[in-house]
């Protein structure tokens, strides 16, 4: 076998083993009559110029798969491998168009060369950095758009850059504040007597018990009420003889005697020695202030009752968020002891004062107390949903770069061009923020990887300062 053929077969064997690039590049393979180079794995192997002919030096898969053989062979479906003669060009890389291989040199004027790692370092002449990387040329015209950053499609994809249009919509915001459960003040009753009395007997009712309207709370004796009752009977008897009634009935009413007791006296024509004092409403006994045998002075409280079928939640809203709370706003209340249970209600009052110590305003939410789970004094977490009726220009929260003194968004100009734009912010929502100045409804803003583009913008601004000095002779 001739030497070129033996060398070609050895080359094919190396190619089949997957080490052609490394072996040829590092062993300095030289095959007589070979003058063209092709790349495999980043190294080069020499083969003959196209157009020459010769004996087959190896065989390759007819479908272009990376399978090679030094002898004729067939595929698994019986098709023969393609013979590769010594004069055929071999290239495992995608062939470049002829015009790209012979493209003329770029005739644009080089302004300067910038650091390949993005460092603020430029040079008026070509050079390498400390790692041996070539500085990148910056041509005349590349920076004609002030403030605009240009990124290649590959870099945009690798960086994960995403943009969304500026929208006009209502801005929803959830305000989260602590709250406490309180009794509805309108559902509280104090049981009292308007005359001096003695407590004959107290019903077996204690604090915390539920009572219904009309339930007997205590049995009392009052000389003043008995006297008024006797006078009432006298007037009723006189009325049967045609004598006009006096004011005995009104006096009983003024003493707070329940209407049913007055009706009973008028029907029986008899004043009871003691009177059963009833509960004026359904509710829970919050206080019991009487015991058997006690003397009650006019105005003393016997019991304090509260209806807890409806209840209040009082929440403290910070002063800076008070403008976002509206009467009628939907509110969700969750108890600290029952975080999985939510109660829905609405804000029905904003108290007209600010607490000096906490700089908060108190709001009131009225709730239906299902199953009596809401008890006075419980702590709660309150979420107030606020939404403006007027649509405004908004962008996602992630689109805003806030340095503390400056707020910026990155506008997507298309074709890989991005422009930083300073904006003024309005109200913030749950996932968006209002823009009052700086963008329009036709703009698109970057919502992901915008910090990378902002860093590139700052770098460009720094490099532009160097450019004016390095291009001058």
How would you characterize this protein structure?
Residues 310-387 form the CusB-like beta-barrel domain. Residues 189-306 form the CusB-like barrel-sandwich hybrid domain. Belongs to the membrane fusion protein (MFP) (TC 8.A.1) family. Residues 394-453 form the CzcB-like C-terminal circularly permuted SH3-like domain. This is Efflux RND transporter periplasmic adaptor subunit. With 473 residues, the protein is α+β, with helices and mostly antiparallel strands. It has 5 domains: 3-98, no CATH class; 110-139, no CATH class; 149-170 and 391-470, conserved putative lor/sdh protein from methanococcus maripaludis s2 fold, CATH 2.40.420; 194-299, RNA polymerase II/Efflux pump adaptor protein, barrel-sandwich hybrid domain (OB fold (Dihydrolipoamide Acetyltransferase, E2P)); 310-387, Elongation Factor Tu (Ef-tu), domain 3. 19% of the residues lie in helices and 37% in strands. It is built from 8 helices and 32 strands. The strands form 9 sheets. The protein has a 6-stranded antiparallel beta barrel. It has a 4-stranded antiparallel sheet with strand order 9-29-28-27, with helices on one face. A hairpin with a 4-residue loop joins strand 27 and strand 28. Helix 5 (223-239) packs antiparallel against helix 6 (248-254). The longest helix has 21 residues, at 450-470. The chain is elongated. The two termini are 65 Å apart. 21% of the residues are buried.
């Amino acid at each position: 076998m001739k030497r070129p053929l033996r060398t070609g077969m050895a080359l094919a064997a190396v190619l089949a083993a997957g080490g052609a690039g490394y072996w040829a590049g590092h062993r300095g393979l030289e095959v007589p009559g070979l003058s063209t180079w092709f790349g495999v794995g980043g190294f080069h192997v020499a083969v003959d110029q196209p157009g020459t002919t010769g004996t087959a030096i190896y065989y390759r898969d007819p479908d272009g798969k990376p399978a090679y053989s030094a002898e004729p062979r067939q595929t698994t479906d019986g098709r023969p491998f393609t013979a590769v003669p010594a004069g055929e060009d071999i290239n495992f890389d995608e062939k470049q168009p002829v015009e790209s291989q012979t493209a003329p040199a770029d005739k644009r004027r080089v302004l300067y060369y910038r650091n390949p790692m993005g460092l603020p370092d430029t040079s008026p002449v070509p050079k390498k950095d400390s790692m041996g990387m070539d500085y990148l040329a910056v041509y005349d015209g590349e920076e004609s758009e002030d403030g605009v950053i240009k990124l290649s499609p590959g870099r945009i994809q690798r960086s994960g850059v995403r943009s969304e249009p500026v929208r006009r919509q209502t801005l929803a915001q959830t305000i989260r504040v602590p709250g406490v459960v309180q009794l509805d003040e309108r559902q509280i009753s104090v049981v009292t007597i308007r005359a001096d009395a003695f407590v004959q007997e107290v019903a077996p009712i204690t604090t915390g018990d539920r009572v219904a309207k009309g339930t007997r709370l205590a049995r009392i004796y009052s000389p003043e009420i008995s006297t008024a009752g006797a006078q009432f009977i006298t007037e009723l008897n006189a009325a049967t003889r045609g004598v006009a009634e006096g004011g005995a009935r009104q006096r009983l009413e003024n003493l707070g005697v329940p209407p049913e007791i007055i009706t009973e006296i008028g029907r029986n024509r008899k004043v009871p020695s003691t009177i059963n004092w009833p509960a004026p409403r359904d509710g829970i006994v919050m206080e019991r202030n009487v015991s058997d045998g006690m003397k009650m002075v006019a105005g003393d409280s016997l019991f304090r009752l509260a209806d807890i079928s409806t209840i209040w939640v009082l929440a403290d809203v910070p002063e800076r968020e008070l403008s976002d709370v509206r009467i009628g706003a939907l509110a969700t209340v969750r108890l600290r002891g029952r975080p999985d249970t939510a109660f829905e209600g609405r804000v029905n009052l904003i108290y007209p004062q600010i607490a000096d110590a906490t700089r908060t305003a108190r709001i009131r939410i009225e709730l239906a107390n299902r199953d009596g789970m809401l008890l006075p004094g419980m702590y709660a977490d309150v979420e107030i949903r606020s939404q403006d009726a007027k649509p405004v220009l908004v962008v996602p929260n992630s689109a805003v770069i806030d340095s503390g003194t400056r707020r910026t968004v990155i506008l997507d100009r298309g074709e890989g061009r991005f422009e930083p734009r300073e904006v003024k912010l309005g109200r913030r929502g749950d996932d968006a923020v209002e823009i009052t100045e700086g963008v329009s409804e036709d703009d698109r803003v970057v919502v992901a990887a915008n910090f990378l583009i902002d860093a590139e913008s700052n770098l460009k601004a720094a490099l532009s300062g160097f450019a004016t000095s390095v291009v001058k002779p």
